[in-house]
Amino acid sequence: MATTVPIQWNIVIMGGSLVGKNTLVKQAVDIFDGRMESNGIKSKYIINVEFSGRMYELSLETFFDTGLTTSEQKSIQTAEGYVILYDVTNKFSIERAKMYYKKILQIKDPTHSDVRSQWLNNQSSSNNPSTPTSMDSPTSSATTSSSVQTPRKSNSPRDPSSPTIPQGTSKIPFLLGATKCDVDLSERQVTVVDGLKLADSMNCPYLEVSGLKKQNTVEDLFKELIKTIDRTKKTLVRANTQDSRKTSFKVGNLLPKSVSENDNDANNYLEMRRRKQTIKNRESDMPQHPTTSTTTHL
């Protein structure tokens, strides 16, 4: 039985033009019996999601793909969770998704946003690393480059070229969503593997949603977002209290059955990721033996 007092969270949904932001919100309102609230300046949609014995009141807000106003930047700063969408039939839309990811980092956590943005650029850098990349004008060189940069060996979170995700990125609960997943695989301009790789670089769950199958995919998206926010909050509480217990931040994914059955590249990538995660879990579970120092008495 869900609790009577709902947990209230503000959610920002971002993405390029025509990726389906408003469609997703309207579908969520239909599924969760939501409502619209307006103060005369901007409108929000409120949905109530019952999950894991609790009731969550999510306030959903979307923005036009025309630049952020001061009010919208404030909404990003105070939000508890972020959904970034792209269209699998539009390869440019995933570049916009990367751009919005960077913008949220800049607004939400400016202390480390420069490092994370530079790190994300390095994941898809061209063979001309000295060419600057505009924040508002995504470049297509990331998808056309055939050369691979050799990263420096340093894995420091302050090292922009570090092959591992910068420390603290999982403190901001993101969810990456790919829309129009009901199309045939031949109609995709963005592959499932492209989406999975971007979600891995963002250290967030990846889900594919469809307007034709909203009851399953849209409902799954918001429940996965709730899990992500809750997990992130627990991680922050333990970090602030210096709790030594481990909190796993699992990068999940939900793919349509048609994709999981027919996309061999996606299945191979997922299997590779599962193996890496298994090795990582085994290493983290190994007992840490303290090093003993030998003192020489003269």
From TrEMBL:
GO biological process: signal transduction
GO molecular function, a single term: GTPase activity
GO cellular component terms listed in the entry, alphabetical order: membrane
Biased composition (Polar residues): 152-170, 289-298
InterPro entries from the UniProt entry: P-loop_NTPase, Small_GTPase, Small_GTPase_Ras-type
Name the UniProt record assigns to this protein: Ras
Positions with biased composition (Low complexity): 117-151
Chain spans, region Disordered: 117-171, 279-298
Domain of life: Eukaryota
SMART domains: RAS
Keywords assigned by UniProt, alphabetized: GTP-binding, Nucleotide-binding
Originating species: Acrasis kona
